[in-house]
Amino acid sequence: MAASGIVRLTDHHLGALIALEQAAFMPADQQSPRSLRYLLVKAHADIWGKMQKADLLASIIVLYRRGSEVARVYSIATDQCRRQKGLGRQLLRHAEQAAATKGCRRMRAEVRENNPASRRLFEHAGYDLIGRLPGYYPNGEDGMHYEKQLTAIRSGAAHG
Ligand SMILES: CC(C)(COP(=O)(O)OP(=O)(O)OC[C@H]1O[C@@H](n2cnc3c(N)ncnc32)[C@H](O)[C@@H]1OP(=O)(O)O)[C@@H](O)C(=O)NCCC(=O)NCCS
Q1: Which residues, in sequence order, are CB contacts of 38 under 8 Å at separation 6+?
Q2: CATH code of the domain made up of 6-149
Q3: Is residue 160 predicted with pLDDT exceeding 70?
Q4: Atom of ligand 1 at shortest distance to CA of 89?
């Protein structure tokens, strides 16, 4: 495990990832176990986890599209008991470095309008609000669309 405690999650971490997902998100926003498994083993994605020994404290899922220079934060979650200690910021930075190393020039994220913790995480990490996505979520809530240029991020700092 790297000194940061951040590791690339694999199918061995599926149980821990499901548990974190179910604890961190309301049911409507949870990925199904099947979907998480697909993301871990088949998708064009990076899933990073912040570990403390065998415990998964936080995770981030980043999706890539072939031929695109834009990566997307699909999900980020920190265990309830570990929030506001900088773990989300640390994982986000790691994911940005990994995406930059792959040649991505921008990272995007969609966030519920009514999710101040997540909005502050992205805004304080240097993301610009590039648009509003009306009715983006199943309950009709608007999404806030954020983007960060990765070109200033030194590549080669993240390892799988
Ligand atoms: C959003 C989330 C991942 C943030 O994780 P975290 O580990 O607590 O974040 P950090 O401790 O790194 O905080 C990052 C910044 O956001 C701010 N922040 C975090 N939670 C906050 C809250 N509840 N209210 C206000 N600000 C908050 C921190 O103060 C920090 O600001 P700073 O840069 O000025 O220091 C976490 O709240 C979470 O898991 N939420 C549920 C899942 C979710 O909604 N995910 C986002 C959509 S995919």
Answers
A1: none
A2: 3.40.630.30
A3: no
A4: 12
Q: Is the CB of 98 under 6 A from ligand 1?
A: no
For a pLDDT cut of 90, what percent of the chain falls above it?
A: 86
131-150 pLDDT per residue, tens: 999 999 989 999 999 999 99
Q: Helix, strand, or coil here: 2?
A: coil
pLDDT greater than 80 at residue 153: no
76 lines ligand 1 (CB under 6 A): yes
Sole residue written with tokens 């912040």? 50
Question: Measured in angstroms, how far is the CA atom of residue 76 from the centroid of ligand 1?
Answer: 9
User: With a 6 A CB cut-off, is 77 part of the ligand 1 pocket?
Assistant: yes
Question: Residue 45, SS3?
Answer: strand
With a 6 Å cutoff on the Cβ, whether 106 touches ligand 1 is no
Contact 101, 45 (CB under 8 A): no
d(CA 11, CA 23): 19
Residues 18-73 pLDDT 10s? 999 999 998 988 999 999 999 999 889 999 999 999 899 999 999 999 999 999 99
Instruction: Point out the ligand 1 atom lying closest to the alpha carbon of residue 79.
Output: 39
The residues spanned by each domain of the chain are 6-149
Q: Whose CA is nearest to atom 40 of ligand 1?
A: 77
